[in-house]
Amino acid sequence: MKKLLDQSLRPLVIYTLIILIVSIPAYFLTIDWIWENELDKHHYAIREKLEKRLTSLDLPDNAVSDMISVLNKVQPGFSFTEAVAPSADSSYTLIRFDTFMNDREQFRCLMTDIRVNGTLFRVLIETNMEEIDETILAIAAVTIFFFILLLGGFVYINRKTSLRVWRPFYDSLASLQAFRLEGGKTEALPVSQVAEFADLNKSLTRLMEASLASYKQQKEFTENASHELQTPLAIVKSKLDLLLQSRVLDQSQMQILEDAYQAINRVTRINKNLLLLAKIEQAQFDEQQSISIHGLLNELSPQFTDRFESSDIRFTQQVGEMTLQANPMLLEILLTNLLVNALRYTPAGGEVSVYAGHRKLIFANTGISPLDERNLFRRFAQASPEHAGTGLGLAIVREICERYNWQISYDFDCGHHHFTVSF
Hints:
This protein has helices spanning about 5-55, 60-75, 130-180, 195-245, 250-280, 295-300, 305-310, 330-345, 395-405, and strands at about 80, 90-100, 105-115, 120-130, 290, 315-320, 325, 350-355, 360-365, 405-415, 415-420. By secondary structure, it is an alpha+beta fold. Helix 1 (about 5-55) packs antiparallel against helix 3 (about 130-180) and helix 8 (about 330-345) packs antiparallel against helix 9.
């Protein structure tokens, strides 16, 4: 996850770096071109001066040759050779080993013709460009320095400005994160002078108010429906109990009553689980205390002894001293539902084990095939067609885990189902 400011700043930084990278060779080529043009102008100026001075000496022909020979030996950067016919001027850059500097050097050269006392000479004028390279490198270094300085200032100013501009957004986000439906009231959003943020806060306020209204309606409906269903379900169940005790019914009538009785029991369990889910969602179990997982499992396991023995299932428990801050009733419901779930999916002669470690509680049981993970924690969904239940047990487990920010996960490995609760 990346912050919004980083997302907006990243393209600008990349663009600035690209401009920096492109500007360095551009500076180099531009300055190099300027230097070469200036040196070419300088070389032509030297050529004109040489031609005028040598001609003004008015030397005899043999003396001109001797002077040219002396210049070739004592004047660095010049080379005179007699020419038969005139040639076009040529300017070029040459890199060669310089005996005087004892190193490879770069030279800007001009090959041109001059005429002294009627004699045509081919003249090579060279200028060492070492200082030019150093100048270009210095300019490039200074450019990089100021680009980095500019980039750092730009990032700093942009971040400061963005934080100030986006502060109302972060304040509104913090208020939204603190908003809870079970609290029964909206969060006060900060006042902003920015039109967009003001409109956003108005929309968020309306959304929170609508959510609270829907939540209250849902809460009232769930509570009323659950409470209203309890009485008729209890009456129907008691009447069925009376009929089942009657001796005037034949076998087929008794079977019909038994099926109806089982259906009423299922509806009763669903109703109780739905009421429990509603209470958990509405945070009606606020009381918390320090509870020992080991002690609570020791209290619950005897309730399942008959079911373990009837199915020839071996139960083992390896839980050390682990304590949690939670509501005792919710933690008991969590452990009970996980044990019931383990029993439901364990074949006869199998094994159920509970063990803990590293702030994790793991329920493992033997199984034949993995469960459908998409339906495991969904309400009224069946994870396996072979073992039908109300479809609310694991949904309640997940709701309790979300209530305390615990993590519930499932995997199937080596013929065993594993339900892991990470505290």
